[in-house]
Amino acid sequence: MDIFIAGFGTVGQGVAEVMKERAAWFERRFDECVRIVGALDSSSFEFSSNGLDPEILIRRKKMTGKVGTIELKDESCHILRQFDYDVLVEVTPMNISTGEPGYSNILTAMESGKDVITSNKGPLALKFSELIRIAKRNGVQLRFEATVGGATPVINLSRELLMGERISSIRGILNGTCNFILHRMREEGLPFAQALKEAQEIGIAERDPTYDIEGVDSACKAAILANAIFDLNKTYKDVKRVGISGITEDAIALAAEEKKVIRLIAEISSKRLEVSPRLVPVGHPLSIGGTLNIIQLSTDLAGEITVVGRGAGKFETASAILSDLVALLKDKSTR
């Protein structure tokens, strides 16, 4: 199985490392040689039908800032159209305004008959239904476990292992940055600005943290879950959204007096689609601290199912992408 990686930042490099480390396992388990034949970033690309060495790609990226030796003079989707491969792993940065370049990369691959695995929330938060229709029309798979929760498996769990269940609602903490900030405000009595600065200093929050603290990231994930699990036709703009930038020390202290914490909770069902700060009793699963994500699924037969895991990170996201790749390999083996 030949893989083309679009985007070679932290996540793309994590995917390359995991594929190198799992190469022998792929052959033993699936009798399949899984290799990277192409990789591109914002300024360069590299392709070889004989396969590329992940270590060389990673070393070149770290030394030169470029994954390839060939200058990228055209849009990435045009590059993807020129070469032969089986699966596109699309891990370019999210652009919530246009979904680009991820949307065009995904569209190009699927219209060329390629399966796609992505961690890019932008295209799915904007044009989920359209992309699913195009995948079906072209007889390919679009898999996106890594778009929600990082290493917290919720999409494949819900759509595959819990396929026979009726899931009535989902609640959860979908953004580790917000959870860290609120946790630090509660535990150390920090003002919002200081907790945010601490998150930025240790690399949890971006220099521009708007997507996180204003709930945009969580809203994108909520929209994806609404579409994937409840078969709704929503975008992130349909999510009722309130972020955490207005949370004060006084609000945290008042919650503590009532033995509660404030958490940014996403709630998804066929009737409700919302991301907002909520009061959560201390000791409740949703009162979890740190950078963890937690997702609770309410089902008719199994009752409440709770999944906790790391929501972001190089290997955490690569883990979710690996699960989708394994699903493609199992499907190919079955067929």
Brief synopsis:
The protein is 43% helix and 21% strand. The protein is α/β, with parallel strands linked by helices and 335 residues long.
What is the topology?
Blueprint: E1 2-6, H1 10-30, E2 35-40, E3 44-47, H2 54-64, E4 70-71, H3 76-82, E5 87-90, H4 102-111, E6 115-118, H5 121-137, E7 142-143, H6 155-161, E8 167-173, H7 176-188, H8 192-201, H9 210-213, H10 216-230, E9 240-241, H11 249-257, E10 260-269, E11 273-281, E12 292-299, E13 304-310, H12 314-334
Parallel strand pairs: 1-2, 1-5, 5-6, 6-7, 9-11
Antiparallel strand pairs: 2-3, 3-4, 8-10, 8-12, 10-11, 12-13
Structure notes:
The chain is an alpha/beta fold. The chain has 2 domains: 2-150 and 314-334, 3-Layer(aba) Sandwich (Rossmann fold); 159-310, 2-Layer Sandwich (Dihydrodipicolinate Reductase, domain 2), CATH 3.30.360. It is 43% helix and 21% strand. The strands form 2 sheets. It has a 7-stranded mixed β-sheet with strand order 4-3-2-1-5-6-7, sandwiched between helices. The chain has a 6-stranded mixed β-sheet with strand order 9-11-10-8-12-13. Strand 6, helix 5 (121-137) and strand 7 form a beta-alpha-beta unit. Helix 1 (10-30) packs antiparallel against helix 2 (54-64) and helix 7 crosses helix 8. The longest helix has 21 residues, at 10-30. The two termini are 15 Å apart.
What's the main sheet like?
Answer: 7 strands, mixed
Number of helices: 12
First-last Cα distance? 15 Å
Shape: globular
Return residue spans where pLDDT drops below 50 for at least 5 consecutive residues.
Answer: none
Give the helix/strand class.
Answer: alpha/beta
CATH superfamily of the largest domain: NAD(P)-binding Rossmann-like Domain
What is the CATH level 1 assignment of the largest domain?
Alpha Beta
Tell me the number of strands.
13
Helix and strand sequence: EHEEHEHEHEHEHEHHHHEHEEEEH
So, CATH architecture of the largest domain?
Answer: 3-Layer(aba) Sandwich
Q: What fold name stands as the CATH topology of the largest domain?
A: Rossmann fold
Count of folded domains = 2
Q: Over all CA atoms, what is the radius of gyration? A: 20 Å
Mean pLDDT rating: 95
Q: How much helix, percentage-wise, in residues?
A: 40-55%
Beta-strand content bin = 15-25%
Task: Write out the strand line-up for the largest beta sheet, numbering strands in chain order.
Answer: 4-3-2-1-5-6-7
